[in-house]
Give the backbone structure.
Amino acid sequence: MSRPGHATGGPYAPPAPRRTLTVPSSDGARLHTEIHGPDDAPAVVLVHGWTCSTAFWAPVVRDLADDHKVILYDLRGHGRTPAVGPGGYGTRALADDLAAVLDATLEPGERAVVGGHSMGGMTIMAAADRSVFRERAAAALLCSTGSADLPAESRVIPLRTPAGRRRAHKLMLASRAPLGPVSALTRRTLRYATMGAGASAEQIEACARIVHACPPAVRSRWGRVLYGLELTGGAARLELPTAVVIGTADRLTPLVHARRLASVLPDCRGVTELPGLGHMVPLEDAGAVSGRLRELVAGHLTAQSAADRPPSQQKRQKKEKAA
Amino acid sequence: MAEREREHVRVAVIGSGFGGLGAAVRLRRQGITDFVVLERAGSVGGTWRDNSYPGCACDVPSHLYSFSFAPNPRWPRNFSGQPHIRAYLEHVTDTFGLRPHLRFHSEVQSLRWSNEDLWWEIGTASGPLVADVVVSATGPLSDPKIPDIPGIDTFPGKVFHSARWDHDHDLRGKRVAMIGTGASAIQIVPAIQPDVGRLSLFQRTPAWVLPRADRKITAAEQWLHTRIPATRAARRGLLWGIRELQVSAFTKRPDELGLIEVLGRAHMKKAVKDPELRAKLSPDYRIGCKRILLSNTYYPALAQPNVDVIAAGLKEVRGNTLIGSDGSRTEADAIIFGTGFHVTDMPIGHRVTGARGTTLAEEWKDGMEALRGASAAGFPNFLTIIGPNTGLGNSSMILMIEAQLTYMADYLRQLDVLGGRIALDARPEAVADWTRRIQKRMERTVWNTGGCDSWYLDANGRNTTAWPGTTAEFKKVTRQVDLAEYELLRPPAGRRTPATTEEVAA
């Protein structure tokens, strides 16, 4: 089945990467990875969400790539990363892949600000305990995401009881129904489910093309992972400066998730609530996301003061001493 | 190290009544076996062990006043007596294998939160221990409240509280003064009236008393409930449903209760023919404002010639003479206090020292408040069963207890998910918000508008005990712990590093 191409012009058209590479993950999955922007600029790694791809970050990359090295990759089965066998989907795989990309794309000793949207945010939580992540990530941005209880808290299907919502959203998440060609109906549905009332036609179109491009089988596999998600423990161990961004009209991962993250994160640097925005914040207000990323870069990456850098290094030194 | 000397458990449950035993069952079902149940007495049962006065029975039907996970098809009566309820709790203890967890004669003397170690240091009558989480199921009806009556020590006869009945003391033929007309007193009066010489009942406020639809549950019904469990479940469901439908009259439209008052008046009229006595016994407040009592034998007993109703409180005692607040004088050989319990001031509060170094009693001096009836701000990993605003006016407390146990189970699950040494402390603003919502709803309830002073209200007149909604609603709001309402506490930095280093190394 042919899938729709991405937007070809305007801010939502994916910019051409300076370099692409294929990063092998620990189980052999081959991750399509792109590097945008100058090599010697501060690094930002961005992880897209469920049913999206590197194209999702287009407007954010356009904001950042002038003075940042922006690294993007496609999650398994998404974009140009091939799907894997049935056992290859899970939060462990998410963490493996992020660790592999960080390892492959950053120079020795180089650190990065890592941002994740939706399932990309969950990827960051899943990677919290990985030593590569602890060493390489200077700060994190969790955008439109949650750590657990997605099906019960989602408001896409607005049933009154949590049990009802859990059942209904399970069907939605696990569905293998093909979306078909981008049409007025699918655009409306997608806008309702994932975007705020103020989303422009261009944004909706870009979003629809990206989401339609995700194969239904992959969507369903990852949807099941989202259904049973429990990453609160990972969030609780994200011991790096972490900012949270959320749209107040998010139906997929409503505000309550952001508030819970704020409670759980050991070093939360504030929750930015963007009024009226839905789930697709990086498309709906790319400036807000890139702005927050810039702040994290400025605060924790380029200003590598001795006080800020160390958590992981101090620990390493201690470990060495102990050993 | 000091901590090696003390026993460490994951959870310490205080009390072994319905709340404590229920918590123990839930913990085991959650797969947690590293817990103890601390009990000050020598057997389980809590309120249903301590209250053994003559005539003691429950005024919620037994099929509803029992655990949903431990149904008993063989309840002997609609409203079973204390011995049966106590036996039921013993049976639950055995069936669910709770004996190994029980520590009798282990009254909790002190509970102190350690900000360093993030655990509770517990001093008990049987030695110290530390626990990550404390579940306080001490119950609102556990510590008898005896008013301070001048001259009570000059009284030469026997004095005791209804919850500490002295079964060795023979009341036959004696002149007995009963103080109070609450739920215990109205069960005691008809039970002892035929035996005592003279019974003087001191009544500050008359209670509304409704007929008690009590009867034996026939052998055929018991057989049916045993053979076809669905019939027992249906019976419970019906008892529950009826009570759920009554709730709105208590919480939203107290005027509807006026219809029930007609029943109450007719009930009294049938048994009490003397208009003077009837006047004394007629309440002047809306029914439901104080606990509604159920009895078919109370009014007939009061109409007996050996009973006096003194429509006054007890003011003073001079030797054998009891002086009422109306100046009346009564001679007595024994005094029984049916004056209730410390409900609004949770006595364990004085022994619990939280994260800020203050006691729960100090924090609650202006009224109890806890998030979802369970968590008080500044008292991390401390959950109360039957905490503030979880009481009911018309249905089974076991339903509320089970809802709170669900919350407790999720609390422990969340702690496991978060992993490591972490504690949850309710955010003060979340507690305040919860309390504000409850108090807002409380405004139009019968407890606040009915024109009476009751044990639901604390010293400031605020209702900190009752739940202003249905049990289904409470179940819904206590289904899960919302981490947004809690602050996560982690060990101070110096203590955290070693553990993290290991993780990095691993």
